[in-house]
Amino acid sequence: MEKLEGIERLTFEKATVDPFIGTFGIRSIFNFLWAVGGWITTVVLTLNGTVPLVAGIGLSVVFIQACYMPMHESVHHTPSGGRKTFAWIDRFIGETTGLVLCESFRGHVTTHLLHHTHANGERDPDVLNSAGNPGQIFGRVIAGAILYPLIPFIQLFPPLAKGIPSAIRERFAERDRIRGPEVAKASRWIAIVHVTVLIAGTVTGFGISVWLLWYIPAWIGRFWLSLVFGWLPHHPHKETGRYRDTRIFTFIGSTFLIRGHDYHLLHHLFPRVPHYKLRLLWKSLGKHLDAQGARIEGRAEAQIS
After folding, report:
1. Distance from first CA to last CA of the chain, Å, rounded?
2. What DSSP state is assigned to residue 227?
3. How many CB atoms neighbour CB 124 within 10 A?
4. What is the pTM for the complete model shown?
């Protein structure tokens, strides 16, 4: 296929993508229901002894990390299909799943859109978390899990921050600079809510629920999410440009494992396309993307050639 330029390229892409957007996101809503419902069910069955604690922790990780996809889709208004009348569905799903994931949905909307606008650039908030290697990402997640409950106390008593290693303080300061004051404010308030739940749960005898079936699984899930949605699609986080700031990278089982974001480049190009339609869209746009010089790797590269 020949490389298209200008209006011809935009017209072709719009005509190809339009059938994939704008429908009511029944599947996104279902993904929200089974993820949150599965986690709640796991907590109940673990507490009443039906499910062993170790299995309950593992299942909690699976269901909690699954909450990210409906939250992410809500940023792009795919549950509502972009209809203003149903925008409350996006907000409800986003706020609920954000609460489970120890994340401010309002803050995530801003940072995720910044990521789309400045992918791999100096103003990309995701680079601080996802660039490097899996070991480095693991270290950042551990630091985040430890420091997150301290945020409200550091805000109240700033001298406490002196106990944090200077390198971590500088990294957090850089993160806040990139994200902006509104995100920092939103994140602070949601952290207060989370810490309140942790403290209240602990003192009222629900320590297992709040720590072993929620907080720790949430951060284990966040590590996994950082790998498959942050690191893998953008590695090595060096290129910028419409067709190069992320990639198509497929392998056996990748669509199931990463829930369609093995075609992550398509998401950056057309963010209103639901994740479960990206693979189908790839079949229509694969040769076009190859002609445009897109990053196509793994099994997808072999399929193109």
Report:
1. 12
2. I
3. 23
4. 0.95
